[in-house]
Amino acid sequence: MTTYNFSAGPSSLPTEVMTQITQELTKNQATHMSILEISHRTPQFENILDEAKASLKSLLDLPDNYKVMFLSGGGTTQFEMVPMNLATRLKKIAILDSGNFAHKPIGAAEALNVTVDVPGTTRSIKYRELPHLPAQFDDTQYDYVHLVTNNTIEGTTYHQEDIPDVQHLVADMSSNILAEPYDFKKFDLIFAGAQKNLGIAGITLAIVNQDWLDEQDLSHLAPMQKYQTAIDKDSMYNTPPVFAIYVLNLVLKWIEQSGGIAGLYEKNQRKAHKLYDYLDHSSFFDAMVTGKERSLTNVVFTSGDAKRDAQIAQKASQAGFYNLAGHRSVGGFRASLYNAQPEQAVDDLIAYLKNVEMEYLND
Amino acid sequence: MTTYNFSAGPSSLPTEVMTQITQELTKNQATHMSILEISHRTPQFENILDEAKASLKSLLDLPDNYKVMFLSGGGTTQFEMVPMNLATRLKKIAILDSGNFAHKPIGAAEALNVTVDVPGTTRSIKYRELPHLPAQFDDTQYDYVHLVTNNTIEGTTYHQEDIPDVQHLVADMSSNILAEPYDFKKFDLIFAGAQKNLGIAGITLAIVNQDWLDEQDLSHLAPMQKYQTAIDKDSMYNTPPVFAIYVLNLVLKWIEQSGGIAGLYEKNQRKAHKLYDYLDHSSFFDAMVTGKERSLTNVVFTSGDAKRDAQIAQKASQAGFYNLAGHRSVGGFRASLYNAQPEQAVDDLIAYLKNVEMEYLND
Fold first, then answer.
1. Averaged over A204-227, what is the pLDDT?
2. Distance to chain A for B300, nearest Cα, Å
3. Alpha-carbon dihedral angle through residues B199, B200, B203, B206, given to the nearest 10 degrees
4. Which residues make beta-bridge pairs with B325?
5. Of B184, B190, B189, B237, nearest in space to B215 by CA
6. Which chain B residue lies closest to A104 (C-alpha atoms)?
7. Which residues of A touch B36 (CB under 8 A)?
8. Taking the domains of chain A in order of start, what are their residue ranges?
9. Which of A3, A12, A241 sits opposite B241 (nearest CB)?
């Protein structure tokens, strides 16, 4: 049985990467060790780290003043590290409240005595649309504006044309980094958990504009709380998660071989458009997001009946379509179409949904 | 060629665990997913997490008021989390400065405005012996006493009879947890990076006495800074490092099958005593630590000439004895004999060192 994993993350790895991991997990012929056993203080691992950093700088087309860090504790830890490191001047930030993972950083920053303004929110309509900055927004009143490029749970995205022009922009790109194009230089801080588009759970990417970091007063922070420690110590102030960084590097190589962001974007557009097109023409299923805000990586939809949706998702998993149930706060279905999701998965899912539709409509 | 990895960490995994990982890395027959791809919100992962917690409570013989957490950021992050969470009453702690990894937490706590007293230090003699609390030490003046049970770099250990009786004791057990017996109830907080005795780099174990944590004022902390968040959310407030916890659980099962701490302690004593016995009788090599403070997990020794030591370590790696060079702050050699290190590794190392000795003495 062919099976597909539509999980919002941790998600599938590219088949080529899985094959390579399986081959290399046994002892390496030169080092006589498995990648699981090598020290971070070896030329082998230092190469992996250097390659991963260089690939990211190149794929994201970032200049030398952007510094790449590999951190721990997921995006959730970044909800705290970002204000600690980058809201030291005005101690006031603005967050575009576009979904669950845009809302959480509000409480995190406030717990750290940073004032949070919410210049735009769609919370009252359950985040079915994206909020935007008001025309009269004064960015000089804030250390930075925080936004989530792709809302994993709600299936909405600030695509490149919707990214606001402000002095300092922080982006949580956990669910669409390297899946679609942005002018990454518009952001002064980017972070992303690896477990959606970059590899396995256990490593978080953060990239900061060093010039901006240099303006901050970090004297009140302990070493592990500071971005500067990770930059100065090449992400090895503590023992880094060697295997997770190794997998990340393999995924980056696979992205390069897939034509970089441009190549994957073309494929991701095809995948998402096929599915949205089907949903828009279906008389049984409906996409829950309309218009240009639709996410390419997380497609949410429903048959309009919560109980029936749950039954269908359950039955689909028996047919090999795993993890289609939507997040509990939204319900319905969510098909996550990250970079590693093959186009065939979408074709097969549409065929399956057509059958479901027929069954119910004939009932 | 048979090869051995004597690295101080990341270190070797038990052969049985490596085999099991290799077998299970390909797609599981029931879930049709690799362990690298499963979500943390699955019954499969929840079982792994529950098993790991139960094994630890049982192996360490800890009562129900001790809570097990799986955290990120290594022991180094604990140098900061411990004072943040557990030095909230007097904001004053005492650290037994027994080595490099006992010294680092001093600066970390001070950066967080916690006063640090050092009631005992052997820094001036390069940590060749262990410091102890003075007889008149008044533990009521401190939130807690912090000690490192095993000093990985310097090769010294507070064995169970040397653990002081104080009101609240915090132990960094990164390099000898589950390798020798302690009355673990004497500690109110234990932490350990996994990459020496517990698995791969990327996960840190912390165990806290909930009764003591309940006495703290944690209102100033953000969610990821609080132990209570990890306890309340079962270490899944953020997406946990699924694979690292999976490997940790396999290692714990292997420890149970190896007779638990008692079984491994017997083996670890045999390994270490063989090597120390050889060094004590050698006219060429000398152990750098004497007496009852000797570590079972990290044996440091020297031929008395730094340059020659480096040459010998280099040559040994060509013969399959990897990572024998001592830490740069100590020099000489360090043979790390963690739980997964087979007794044969020690036998073969001694035979090799005897040959080296003969070669040099015949020169």
1. 97
2. 18
3. 30
4. B333
5. B189
6. B223
7. 10, 13, 18, 21, 200, 247
8. 15-257, 260-361
9. A241
**CA B127 to chain CA mean position, Å:** 18
Q: What is the pLDDT of residues A33-56, one digit of tens each?
A: 889 998 999 999 999 999 999 999
Average pLDDT over residues B98-116: 98
- The pair of structure tokens assigned to A293 is 């805000």
Closest-CA distance, B219 to chain A, in angstroms, reads 8
Tell me the pLDDT of chain B averaged across its residues. 96
- The 3-state DSSP composition of chain B as helix, strand, coil percent (nearest 5) reads 40, 15, 40
pLDDT at position B289:
97
pLDDT of residue A145: 98
Chain A CB contacts of B222 below 8 Å: 79-80, 108, 111-112
Query: A interface mutation test: which of B239, B245, B248 has the most A CBs within 10 A?
Result: B239
Q: Are A244 and A199 in contact (CB under 8 A)?
A: yes
Taking residues A158-179, what's their average pLDDT? 98
pLDDT of residue B1 exceeding 90: no
Please report, rounded to a whole number, the percentage of residues in chain B having pLDDT higher than 90.
93
**Mean pLDDT value of segment A69-86:** 98
Pairing of strands B150-151, B156-157: antiparallel
CA dist list (Å): A181 to A32, A131, A155, B49, B205 = 41, 21, 17, 38, 39
- Does B149 appear as a known binding residue? no
Among A84-88, A212-216, A328-332, B203-207, the minimum mean pLDDT is found in: A328-332
Contact of B175 with B297, CB cutoff 8 Å: yes
- A27 pLDDT higher than 90: no
Nearest to A244 among B10, B195, B241 (CB): B241
**Under CATH, what is the fold of the domain B15-257?**
Aspartate Aminotransferase; domain 2 (3.40.640)
A238 is an annotated ligand-binding site residue: yes
Query: Which residue from A34, A108, A322 is facing B223, i.e. has the nearest CB?
Result: A108
Is B270 annotated in a binding site? The answer is no
Phi/psi at A148 (5° precision): -105, 115
Which ipTM value was assigned to this complex?
Answer: 0.96
The residue with tokens 């007496």 is: B291
Contact B223 A80 (CB under 8 A): yes
pLDDT of residue B23: 86
Q: In the block, which residue shows the tokens 């174990």?
A: B205
Please, what is the Cα angle at A193 between A188 and A195, to 5 degrees? 150
Mean pLDDT (whole number) for B272-277 = 98
Average pLDDT, chain A: 96
Q: Is B195 annotated as a binding residue?
A: yes
Determine the residue of chain A that is closest to B71 in CA distance.
Answer: A73
Structure tokens at A184: 């990454």
Mapped onto helix, strand or coil, the DSSP state of residue A68 is: strand
pTM: 0.97
Q: Note the pLDDT of residue A31.
A: 77
Question: Which class in CATH covers the domain with range B260-361?
Answer: alpha beta
Residue B212 pLDDT grade (very low, low, confident, very high; cuts 50, 70, 90): very high
The first and second tokens of residue A278, run together, are 């089907």
- Judge contact between B252 and B59, C-beta under 8 A: yes
Alpha-carbon Rg for chain B in angstroms: 21
Rounded to whole angstroms, how far apart are CA atoms A354 and B213? Answer: 55
